[in-house]
Design brief:
Layout (H helix, E strand, L loop, with lengths): L2 H19 L11 H8 L2 H9 L1 H22 L7 E5 L6 E2 L1 H9 L6 H9 L4 E2 L3 H10 L3 E9 L3 H10 L10 E4 L6 H10 L1 E7 L18 H6 L1 H7 E3 L7 H7 L4 H16 L1
Parallel strand pairs: 1-4, 1-6, 4-5, 6-7
Antiparallel strand pairs: 2-3
């Protein structure tokens, strides 16, 4: 065997051995490299969300602040019975294990994989959420969970919430999506019979749909225009892994398009 052939054989053997020894490929996913690369862009954000004491404290801090706001707003006179509105995902329940699984498999959110996760009803409560909602109930508030989970996820969501003792986790109080992700109508439904004293969410749209629009300066001007109301009635919790803030950057389309838009966005920011 010629020397050249020997080295070629050695190289091939090494490559085969290396590919067997390495864990399941992530960024080099031969099936769909764009999906795997987009998924990899979420690694640090997901680790921060899932495993940092910093995020745990941000939740604790947010809910501690929520108590102060709740007490202040309850002190204002009103004839209607008080209610608190909370979002579910990344507000009271932690879905970061689903995001981690996506990274391991080199994939991104799809309704199918998401529903397979929610069907397990295994999401854990976020720090401070349960204590705050029990406190709100002790102060005479009703609790409404307004979520953009689908109607066919209502039962598993109730099961998941009830498993951890969340108050008022039932069909009357867990309001899933009815054809639109816009929560305005569902909030208005609660407001017809209650004085909504506080809203809590991980998206600014958990307070007002107008804050979905990120076309002007990532939505900062609209957020500041509404800062008075936000300060009095809304508690925002951290979500580094997904949301309208990220959709505003990735846009819609294929995973390759989203991956490329993140890169273009970064390029614009450093110019
Ligand atoms: Mg949410």
């Amino acid at each position: 065997m010629k020397r050249q052939h020997k080295s070629l054989l050695l190289l091939t053997l090494t490559a085969v051995l290396l590919s067997c020894a390495s864990p399941r490929a992530l960024t080099t996913d031969g099936e769909n490299p764009a999906s795997a690369q987009l998924s990899q862009q979420n690694v640090n954000a997901t680790l921060y969300q899932n495993a940092s004491a910093e995020v745990a404290w941000l939740y604790e801090q947010g809910y501690a602040f929520a108590r102060i706001k709740l007490d202040a707003n309850l002190a204002l006179p009103d004839s209607l019975p008080p209610a608190v509105i909370v979002d579910v995902d990344e507000t009271v329940l932690d879905n970061s294990p689903y995001e981690l699984q996506n990274i391991l498999e080199g994939r991104n959110y799809t309704p199918e994989t998401w529903k397979a996760w929610t069907a397990r009803a295994e999401a854990k409560p976020l720090p401070g959420a349960l204590d705050f909602l029990n406190y709100a109930v002790s102060r005479g508030c009703s609790v409404y969970y307004i979520t953009n989970r689908d109607a066919d996820e209502q039962e598993v969501t109730i099961t998941n919430l009830a498993k951890h003792g969340f108050p008022m986790a039932d069909k009357e109080h867990v309001l899933t999506m009815q054809g639109t992700s816009d929560k305005t109508e569902r909030r208005a439904g609660v407001s017809r019979k209650h004085r909504v004293v506080l809203l809590v969410g991980d998206q600014l749209t958990d307070y007002d749909q107008a804050l979905k629009d990120r076309s002007a300066d990532q939505g900062l001007p609209s957020m500041y225009r509404m800062s008075g109301q936000l300060s009095q009635y809304f508690i925002l919790l951290p979500n580094s892994t997904y949301g309208y803030w990220r959709d505003g950057i990735t846009g819609r389309g294929s995973d390759a398009e989203k991956r490329d838009r993140v890169r273009s966005f970064i390029e614009q920011r450093v110019r």
